[in-house]
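Researcher: Here's the sequence for the chain we discussed earlier.
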Amino acid sequence: MENSREKELKFWVAFSSTGLLGPARFAKLLKFFNSLEKAYHSSRKDFLLAGLEENIVDQLMKRVKEIDPDKQMALLEKEGIRVILQTDPEYPALLSEIYQPPPLLYLKGSFENSDRIALSIVGARKATDYGKQAAADLALVLAAAGVTIVSGLALGIDTIAHTSALRAGGRTIGVLAGGIDRGTIYPPENKDLVEKIADGRGAVISEYAPYQLPLKQNFPARNRIIAGLSLGTLVVEAKENSGALITANCALEQGREVFAVPGSIYNKNSVGANNLIKMGAKLVMETNDILEELGLAPLKNKIAPETGGAVSVTPKTPEEAAILKLLSAEPIHINDLIKQTGFSPSVVNSTLILMELEGKVRNVGGSKYSVGKML
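Model: Thanks. This is the structure I predict for it:
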């Protein structure tokens, strides 16, 4: 037996599945009909009286009648997707405060009270080694300190932020610009990451119904949700017209904090973040720069400047000692380690693998390594 919420919910999903209704149009329907079940059974004239545009009404009448609400709910259950309405207690409080919050969210995973302390980390898809390392280090330490990391599941900085939060044993929230069913997840390379996040380590959400493609115009709307879930937004690397800057602008409009990691004046990936700092964004060199600005307790052990954030690591072998002497927070290519130590490639490779397993070194990609542990 359906309760009243479940009965009404399937009509929310039906209208959402048309792909024609954003927050403003949903609000018009609710104001006029007071029930989306009633709207589902209404006439073209009624939709026009509700204030919807004539061309939208014509499309809506056709699409909504093609949708079976019960079948849509069965598909959601099959995909393991829940629906949260803005009126539900589980709906994130911070998100409800923004202009035109999503009237409903599709969700894999769950929200927790701790997610109220959240920071979004965004940046370039084609990040530099410096950007990757900065995003990984900051996300790792912040997540370990209990801050939920929010991002957009894009390749590059977004993916690094999510995976670093998981690696720290923390929570992370991913926001998609299309359906969160496995067949539609974008980018497809992150399908497994979505499942890891949803499996008790956070939440993956979208305001778009399953099977809706991530259209170009969806991404700016998605970015307002990323910012809306967070107390502040950190931009690690961004070109001059990067989507990450849209997220930062959303944060400003929502009255949230904006942070940026400074970058090289010679790198196009740094232009956006450096400009944000020029315009007043908080410059970030360590996690306490963020925590203090948000009014959170700073970490007792600050990152040691003399080691670039690394703690001293005791080598087990002469090979480890020689390699550690060459490592710092700045990544170094394995070929340079081979050349400078004089060891054979097989010795350096095997030593690095063992050290990485113990957390002494970190593979930052591109066969480059840095010292591993953070304070």
